[in-house]
Each structure stands twice: as structure tokens, then as C-alpha cells.
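Input.
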Amino acid sequence: MSALEVAAGASVVAGALVQSATGFGFSLLSAPLAYAAFDPKPAVGLLLLLGAEVNLMTLGTEGRRPRPLKRQSIVILVCAAPGALAGVALLRSLSALALQVAVTVGVLATLAVRHIGGGRAHFPAWAAGISAGVLTTTTSTNGPPLVLHLLGLGAPPARVRDTLPTCMLGLAAIGGVALAATGTPALPDAGVILAFVPLVAIGHLVGRRLFAHLAESDHFELVLNGLLTVAVVAGLVGVLVD
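Output.
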């Protein structure tokens, strides 16, 4: 395993930790190095698979009954299906640089809208769904539009943390079907999967302990906004490096 692949593994641990703690951030932290270590199409497949793992662990291994926002989740996933097909077309036609620019612009717009709206700007569920669908099959960084929608609702941290992985599990399934239906080769190497799956579990176990502290404080929304800012910085760095 190369040094770059080892670094990608470390970013997967960090991404799983943050995702477990907030419901968001796995691909945000792991995608840049995954794309650097592997070809774009297998990287998308790997991130969809590992993201599904951490989301399943969040919803199914913590000894509690998840409480996602059901109506919002249904609207988001229904609208994500056409977005995912559009994303496949972009993945097959645009360069990695163009995709990174698109993600960065999107997150910048997210932050701008939230600032103009005083932190409670309304981003409708249907728009979040279409945007997340496109991002699922292009860069796998589908969290920002979902976060923007949920923070605009002012939902409690626990409901946000349950709604995000619920939507992301659905998005992973939709993205996998869209990639398969269009004949897009996005299957990662089996050896990479076997090496990275345990890393996700480690990150999740640490992250869910962190969520217990965040939920009891006033810092949960601050952390989510910080992650959106990290997405912008990472995107700009990626554009400059390329």
C-alpha cells in the first residue's frame, strides 16, 4: 500500500469520526485523498460504500431508536433520483478539476445564503434533494445541501444527526443504482474495501462519544458551520493545486 493510500486511510478514520459525531462530514474529509489515491470512478464507489457503513452504524448500533425527520427525508430522496442520473452524466464528461470547482461554488453559495438569512435561511427539501443527488454520483460530497436544509429548519441536534445518515443511506442506494444502470465502472478494489472497512468502524466508535458532548452543549450548529467552511477551504486548495 502506497503512502498516499495510507494517508487516504487516515482521512477515512477522521471522516468517520466527524460523521458519527455530527451526521455529516465523511466525504468532506475523506474524498480529497481518496480521489488522489484512486481513480475518480472507483473512488466514488468506495466512498459510497464506506459512507453507507458509517451511516448504518450510526442508526443501528447505538442501542436506540433513530428519529429522522420523515417527511423531509422522503422529499429529499425522491428528488435525489433525477439528480443522481444528472450527476453520472457530469462524472463521465467533466474533469476532476471542474467537479471540484462546482462543489466549492456550491458550498460558498450555501454559506452566503445562511449568512444573508441570519442563519435560518430556507433551502427547500426538493432543492436539497436534487443537489445531493448530483453530488452523490460526482464527488460523493452530498452533505452540504442537506445540512443547509436541516439547519434552516432549526431542528434539534439529535434529529439532524438521525436525518442526515438516513438520507445518505438512501442517496448511496440511489447513487449505486444510477452508476450501475448507466454502466459506469465504479467498483473499488476488494483489497481496498477490506482494508478500509475496519477504519470506518474505529472512527465511528470514537465519534459517537463526541456527539454525546456536542448534543449537551450549544456548539453543535457551530461545528456544522465550521465543517462547511472546511469544505470551502479544501475545495479552494484543491483548485489551486490542480
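Residues 190-215 form the longest helix (26 residues).
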